[in-house]
Amino acid sequence: MEKKAELVEPHLLENAFEVWASGPSEWLKAIRNEPELNVIEFNGGKFSEYREGDVISFSEYHIPSDCKFNFVDVVFDSKKAVFSGVKLNGGNFEFKNVNFSKCEEVIFEGMTFAGDRVFIDNVDFESASVSFESSIFDCKEVVFFGCKFRRGLRFNSVKGVGAEIEFRNCSFFGDVLFSGSHFDHGKMSFLTCDMDMEREGSDNIRAKFNFKRVKLERCMLVVSECDFDMVDVDFSKTEFGRGGVIFDDNSFGESRLTFRFISSQGSFIFKGNDVQLVRSIDFSSSNFEGELSLSGLTTSSVVDFRHTKFDRSIDLDKIDIGYKKEDLYFCFSMAKNPDASTCFRKLKKLAKEAEDHRRALDFFAKEMKSDYWRGLTGGRLFAYYLYDVVSDYGRSIKRTLILFCVSFLIFGVIYSNMATEKTATQSAGFVYSFGHAIPIYPASRDARADAVISLFGSAENIPDETVI
Hints:
The chain is built from eight helices and 39 strands. By secondary structure, it is an alpha/beta fold. The strands form six sheets. It has a 19-stranded parallel β-sheet that branches.
């Protein structure tokens, strides 16, 4: 049997608020006087009661190795809360039910988290901007649970060393920025988050979920059951390693999804997402070494794979990709995106390579339709439009049969009305029309000869007008 880990008796820093208020030098003396210190906890107080000022700072405060650093039910009632440069070696870091109602900035920049766990629980950052830029997460687990970032979050140039970083049940309002960050292994997750990130106080400025130029070597990225609205999602030039990527069961509003110039070595799964209202989905100029699955994708915006390379066939099962239109006049319309036709041409090629012939035919039809009034004009437009009406580019047997039957009936009535014999019947006109419609069928030739006699008496009496 494995031995249970020995419980370490907590040794707390007494009067933590007063020691902090005395300044970094007195803080260091107090720390050195407590060799068995393993917990520094600020619990249930206001920092302004111990020291007034616009800045509450821990940047020059030393935290001993293997020491927990906790803030529980405390109030940061200043303009700034600064933790820049603080190094946590071996100890956990916990924020729980912390109040930042008066803060304009909360700065964790350049911190080193090298303990087992970072846990930020149910913290409402109110009107404060939050930044972890250039910090290092060399720990096992980082959890942001139930937090509200009302002025966005800056995670630029962060380094993750094996950490599992999770944002769960969080709400974001404003820009979420991860540009230039590097995660060598571990996992990055956004689970059941509300990313209604239109900046508060503005109806016109769209927010950004910016993951540009991020490097994930063996780190898995999971974005699941999140609600994106009024946000542009940008992963341009990001390098996804063998850890894989999963986007599933997310809801995207009027977003732009950009994955241009990305590289992906592992599997890239994009399934079960609601993308009906998105403005664009762009995977152009990218490189996929592993599997790419878009199974079940339904969108009214064409997906752009132009200049993208695939080492494996793409999974296009049960997808429905359309394109947005703008009305011209009468029943005519034109694709809003001038590049829609070339995008569908690339999709057609991918479907052929995957031997998905039904999907290839579908993309061919949309390639031609989205080129109406753009590349296709004049006589060519009329010819392709007629092909569209008659057979929906070969996809509709039903439409062709209906047109055949309608034309058969119309010409049957016309031939009956042109009859020269008084005893001619309506049925003879239909038989004559059927004979013209299927001239190679032997029985139709005999029936047509009988119909000629019933309608016109003999072949010499057939009016020239019947030859159409």
